[in-house]
Amino acid sequence: MSNEYVTINDVTLRDGMHAIRHQYTKEQIAEVTRLIDASGADIIEATHGDGLGGSSIQFGFSKETEKDIITTAVDNAKNAKVSVLLLPGIGTIDHLKRANEWGAQVVRVATHCTEADVSEQHIKTANELGMETVGFLMMAHRTSPENLLNEAKKMASYGATTIYVVDSAGALTMDDTRRRISLFKENLDTEIGFHGHNNLSLGVANSIAAYEEGATRIDASLAGMGAGAGNTATEQLVAVLNKLEIANGVDLYKSMDAAENVIKPIMERPVQIDSLSLTLGYTGVYSSFLLFAERAGKEYGVDPRDILVEIANMGAVGGQEDWIIGVAQDLAKKQKVYA
Ligand SMILES: C[C@H](O)CC(=O)C(=O)O
Ligand SMILES: [Mn+2]
């Protein structure tokens, strides 16, 4: 195994938004940015959980404005670059231009794993703006490694300089991860990244497997603060990287302290593997559906795991959060009929 430096892209302030219904305050964003920056992470992502333009009735309104979220992160990051997430269709070129004006240096253009075509305009514009441009192929378990590579090649041809395998549902096994990353490594000239969710308890293991196959950018968040059972926890990842003597810039104690003393107290619902988040990974459902399914289960008196199973059968992808209520209503009706 080579000992290439691994770039840590911290997503506490973006994926972590899902875990608290996008309610970070400006003060929290400032403090968390300072802590992540001081711990040595290379890139700090800050936006609504669903990226630029995500604050809406469909995904939930964020507490702070997009401008405040981004500028607060930019103002408090002394060393790290600030990245934003953009899902074409939710975020627009105008959102991207504004984020750039507010100081974001990196954009991660995210599409469903079979929909890279929709990223062309956004990736090209980001490059014209002089931003570092990353392609982010979500729900990577939902297509074959070969198809995923074809989609990655499209993003590379548009100008993305890093392409991510994104395990949005925390559903990839280590072999699944290895097959996807190794194909990328053999066939792409770009840098390769991996974004994991811990629903099957494989966040760190998959991240290390990804590194071993050639990924040099890994996403992580303090205390795993993120959708579902959370992301790969920074402090856990760094402990393993250090034991494996893999070069990285993050201070272990600083990340541990920030996770314990600052992030865990912010959590409304513990970010952990429980029956519901485990079901996400087991059935392959988008991690950010967790709170929606939990709420709908309570409201309609049905088991939220049954909602997720049905959502998985229907093949829902990110952006189809509104299906959850319909599924809960149907399950509730069936329960009455058969009672
Ligand atoms: C919009 C999603 O939360 C992006 C992401 O982090 C994922 O797919 O995972
Ligand atoms: Mn995620």
TrEMBL record:
Presence of the UniProt keyword Manganese in the record? yes
Q: What is this protein called?
A: 4-hydroxy-2-oxovalerate aldolase
Molecular-function GO term, any one: 4-hydroxy-2-oxovalerate aldolase activity
The UniProt record lists the keyword Lyase? yes
CDD domains, per the entry? DRE_TIM_HOA
PANTHER family found in the cross-reference section: 2-ISOPROPYLMALATE SYNTHASE 1, CHLOROPLASTIC-RELATED (PTHR10277:SF9), HOMOCITRATE SYNTHASE-RELATED (PTHR10277)
Q: Where does substrate bind?
A: R14, D15, S168, H195, Y286
Catalytic reactions of this protein: (S)-4-hydroxy-2-oxohexanoate = propanal + pyruvate; (S)-4-hydroxy-2-oxopentanoate = acetaldehyde + pyruvate
Active-site residue list: H18
Q: Where is this site: Transition state stabilizer?
A: R14
Q: Which GO terms describe its biological process?
A: L-leucine biosynthetic process
